[in-house]
Amino acid sequence: MKDILKAPFVEEMKKTTANMYRLGWDERNGGNISYLLDEREVGEYLDLKRVIRTIPTGFCAPSLAGKIFIVTGTGKYFKNVEKDPENNLGIIRISKDGKDAELLWGYSDGGKFTSELPAHLMSHAARLKVDPENRVVMHSHPTYTLAMNYVHELDEKKFTHTLWEMCTECIVVFPDGVGVLPWMLCGTNSIGEATAEKMKEFRLVIWAMHGIYGAGKTLDETFGLIETVEKAAQIYMLTAHLPRLNTIKDEDMVKLAEFFKVKYRKDFLNL
Ligand code: 13P
Ligand code: ZN
């Protein structure tokens, strides 16, 4: 067996959580990540027949039965993942009936997966139907995105339009726009179901006055989506109180979308 601590997916999780912490997006235990792994690859590092513990998830995800994820632990700090991955991360396999998580590695102090597992797994199930290559769901509390929630209308067309106006590349990076959920109690199956419903059409979902969810093929791609929203929100927050002299026009956004050949939400423009 190879050393799990040297596995590329553990290395990637260490780098990503450290980066997100460094950017101030994930204070204390804020934020969580789940990353769908390849069973054959995990089998090079772990005995897949050895289940350390079986942990009920509190919901049923039959379409994910047998799938293996590396997931951040509940109450664990992104700041600490790099120095102690075995305690702060876990590798779980969804049981045959879709109701339990079989712990294959990690959560070494007896902990368990993030309290936001419903939103993660339900979002994976929704995204996999749209894109079979989707592997990552990421939740974070990026500062300017959150600040924008307090001063901007929480309407997905208007919110997306404002973000698209803030940086030339926004409409190219997230042409599908940003879904918005009202404030809801986090950690519940209800917020999980609502997030997954939005994930059918968006790869980015704002949880009002809480944070953001992103989904993508890789950790890098998903991080990049959230990073681009956060950059746009930062520019908005730096300029919202100042007179606006210039702006990227809707006609310019159409030119961008057509030139870069992206399928964009035409109904989010005011043409
Ligand atoms: P966990 O510590 O359970 O992952 O929760 C953090 C969080 O961001 C809740 O939304
Ligand atoms: Zn959160």
What's this model, at a glance?
Helix content is 40%, strand content 17%. The chain has helices spanning 8-22, 39-43, 78-81, 85-88, 117-130, 143-151, 156-166, 170-173, 189-199, 219-239, 250-259; strands at 32-37, 53-56, 68-72, 89-94, 100-106, 136-140, 179-181, 204-207, 211-216.
Set down the secondary structure blueprint:
Elements: H1 8-22, E1 32-37, H2 39-43, E2 53-56, E3 68-72, H3 78-81, H4 85-88, E4 89-94, E5 100-106, H5 117-130, E6 136-140, H6 143-151, H7 156-166, H8 170-173, E7 179-181, H9 189-199, E8 204-207, E9 211-216, H10 219-239, H11 250-259
Parallel strand pairs: 7-8
Antiparallel strand pairs: 1-3, 1-6, 2-5, 3-4, 4-5, 6-9, 8-9
Helix pairs in contact: 5-9, 6-10, 7-10
The structure holds 1,3-dihydroxyacetonephosphate and zinc ion.
What does this structure look like?
The protein has 271 residues and is α+β, with helices and mostly antiparallel strands. The chain folds into 2 domains: 1-114, L-fuculose-1-phosphate Aldolase (3-Layer(aba) Sandwich); 116-271, Class II aldolase/adducin N-terminal domain (L-fuculose-1-phosphate Aldolase). It has 11 helices and 9 strands. It has helices at residues 8-22, 39-43, 78-81, 85-88, 117-130, 143-151, 156-166, 170-173, 189-199, 219-239, 250-259, and strands at residues 32-37, 53-56, 68-72, 89-94, 100-106, 136-140, 179-181, 204-207, 211-216. The chain has a 9-stranded mixed β-sheet with strand order 2-5-4-3-1-6-9-8-7, with helices on both faces. β8 (204-207) and β9 form a beta hairpin. α5 (117-130) packs parallel to α9, α6 packs across α10 and α7 (156-166) crosses α10 (219-239). 44% of the residues are buried. The mean pLDDT is 98. The structure holds 1,3-dihydroxyacetonephosphate and zinc ion. 1,3-dihydroxyacetonephosphate is lined by residues 29-32, 72, 74-75, 114-116, 139, 186.
